[in-house]
Amino acid sequence: MYMNQNNNTKVAKPKMSLFSVVMLALSSIIGSGWLFGAWEASKVSGPAAIISWVIGAIVIGIIAYVYIELGTMFPESGGMSKYAGYTHGPLLGFIASWANWVSLVTLLPIEAVAAVQYMSSWPWAWANWTNHFVANGTVTTEGLMMVFLFILVFTLLNYWSVNLLTRFTSLTSIFKLVVPSVTIIMLLISGFHPSNFTNHNFGGFLPYGTAPIFAATTVSGIIFSYNAFQTVINVGDEITNPKKNIWRGIVIALFASIVIYIMLQFTFIGAIDPAMLAKHGWHGINFESPFADLAIMLNINWLVILLYLDAFVSPFGTGVSFVASTSRTLAAMTQNGHMPKILGKINQKWGTPRIAMVANWLISCILVSIFKNWAVLASVISTSTLIAYVTGPVTLMALRKHAPEFKRPVTINFAKVVAPLAFILASLAIYWAMWPTTMEVIVVIALGLPFYLFYEDKLNWKNSMKKFKGSLWMLFYLAFMSAFSYVGSTPFGGQNWIHYPYDFLVIIAVSLGFYYWGVNSYQETKEMQDAKNVNNKVKNN
What we know:
By secondary structure, the protein is mainly α. It has one domain: Amino acid/polyamine transporter I (Up-down Bundle), CATH 1.20.1740.10. The protein contains 23 helices and four strands. The chain has helices at about 20-30, 35-45, 50-75, 85-90, 90-120, 140-160, 160-190, 210-220, 220-225, 230-235, 240-270, 275-280, 290-295, 300-330, 355-370, 375-390, 390-400, 415-430, 435-445, 450-460, 465-485, 500-520, 525-535; strands at about 1-5, 10, 135, 140. Strand 1 (about 1-5) and strand 2 (about 10) form a beta hairpin. The longest helix has about 30 residues, at about 300-330. The chain is globular, with a radius of gyration of 23 Å.
């Protein structure tokens, strides 16, 4: 609601239609992932990368299914960062929020890196100055300066006006859907080689065995590419008829993105020149701008220009959109009193959390200075997001058990099976990120704990032991995942103390134990009153 200044009457804010929800989700999902994901996955697992996209879709689809019930129970802005705190207290809520924020703040540099990497391969003479932005897939010092500038532009487009942001993302949404579709069609009809899928000279359909199929889902940016379904959850209170349109928007957007991504992978594999594969194999495919490079090889010059244009539009559209989400996530973390209050300050004139935006820009620049490769950034985003996601199934079942009276506009079927399955799949996907990335991301998440402890001290450690007990399962879970990543099998970067696929069996068994520990760690918290207030406004019909 907002006040009409002429007569002081309350006027309802415009709500998002189902079409707007789907376009928002697709605009967020179709970012730099389509520009690099197919290439990265092909390098890891060859033609079997198609299966990797299917597995990634299953993992994210089942996790999203769990969040549909939570999202319709609590249709509120920034909901993804609040659910864990409702059922297990502020410490678990802080860990989930911090992990989610880490994934979002890393998304800003990955979109900038994507644009800069495509710039680095511009084939025109006047663009020679861009050729040194990337070397061997890693952003150079010159490239970093351009990445910093792009992240600043993402930020400034949000800094001054929410209306400007809305117009910008609306303009890019259709373009981001059309270009991948046109690329698929043109590459299929211009130079498709079916033998690439089965030629034994290149290793056949499974050139490196089955383990890389799973590794590719995380390390190649597949989980990252599908991940943005949470944008629908996070704007739950701005959607018309959230009971139906939250789950419809997620399902439609995910299905459309699955079709697009799998077709892009299929097309990419078939479009590669067999002579290149004969010489280098799948591991040796070396592109700076994968689809643009293929279009150049096939002499489709107009498509080359379109792809280089989209290499700005897709990353910029996603980057600009997520500056808003990232800043609001950081600002929301101040509400439980465990982050500096100044980060939550909203500029009265523009309605944006400007200080949070500036902080995010600085953190993004630091992160990209450490992780300078698109695929590594994608792994960081996927892993941190998945760590936040594992709290969802636990929260769902804790609410089923301890708050059965809550309104549930959408009650998912087979929750007792789906919730632990979602937890297991998320755990496996975290493991697939490979050592040392899994450990590095967990360390980054652990770096947030000093903020929490500092503010707990200022609160005189009130009920701290109770809060700690509600989150103890997560602390041990993170320690286990980090350690097991080190001792796991060779295909996932470990010491091979436990061989593939037995490492998967250990993850499944231990994850189930942590899941049930988490569900039984439910606590009656003061945050639960906030949950009740939000849920009371929900309509079941």
